[in-house]
Write a structure and sequence with these properties.
Tetracycline Repressor, domain 2, Arc Repressor Mutant, subunit A, about 0% strand, about 200 residues, single chain
Length: about 200
């Protein structure tokens, strides 16, 4: 693959990511993606095989798959596992807001593309549930149900996404990602009954 091909493919992906986040998949045409990318409209078919394949390619290129491989490669305690996953989720949703918005939109709309989204999300949240159950079994987490606890962890880890559109005076653009990740992790672990020194 030559450098110009790689460059145009990247431009198409970045344009699609921006437009899908702003207008939704169905509200975005191939022509709009190509206009945004400064590319000939035939290049979407040539490089990707159509708009649906561009959507799939966004997840292949921009979803932080390293997160799960890092978590499964290392043997870590349930506390450290929850700490790392919550930290990564907050960082991902804050640093790649376009991909995060696409994920949220597709889950809300429940289209046939939602299966692609869950293909990437399910391993992460299944790992959370696994860590919660291990922590409960080991007496590290003071929870009654790992399923209910998982809902609470997900809710806290993604609360800033909902706050973005709320009327509570949050200045989403000025949120400090580092501080938000740190405080979210602390809040989750306290909610699970973990001593802050663990």
């Amino acid at each position: 693959m030559t450098e110009p091909e790689l460059d145009i493919k990247t431009r198409i992906l970045l344009s699609a990511k921006k437009l899908f986040a702003q207008q939704g998949y169905d509200g975005t045409s191939v022509r709009q993606i190509c206009d945004e990318a400064g590319a000939n409209v035939s290049l979407v078919s040539y490089h990707f095989g159509g708009k649906e394949k561009v959507f799939d390619a966004l997840f292949e290129h921009f979803f932080p798959e390293h997160m799960l491989s890092k978590l499964t490669a290392n043997t870590m305690s349930p506390v450290e596992g929850i700490r790392q996953i919550v930290d990564e989720v907050v960082r991902f949703t804050m640093t790649d807001r376009e991909m995060s918005d696409i994920v949220q939109l597709e889950i809300t709309l429940r289209t046939h593309r939602t299966a692609t989204v869950f293909q990437y999300l399910d391993p992460v949240w299944n790992k959370v549930k696994e860590y919660l159950q291990q922590g409960k079994d080991q007496g590290l987490f003071k929870i009654e149900s790992s399923s209910y606890a998982m809902l609470q962890v997900m809710g806290v880890a993604l609360a800033h996404k909902r706050a973005k559109h709320s009327r509570f005076g949050f200045d989403y653009q000025d949120m400090n990602t580092e501080e938000l990740a740190k405080q979210t992790v602390q809040f989750v672990l306290r909610g699970l009954g973990v001593n802050s020194h663990e």
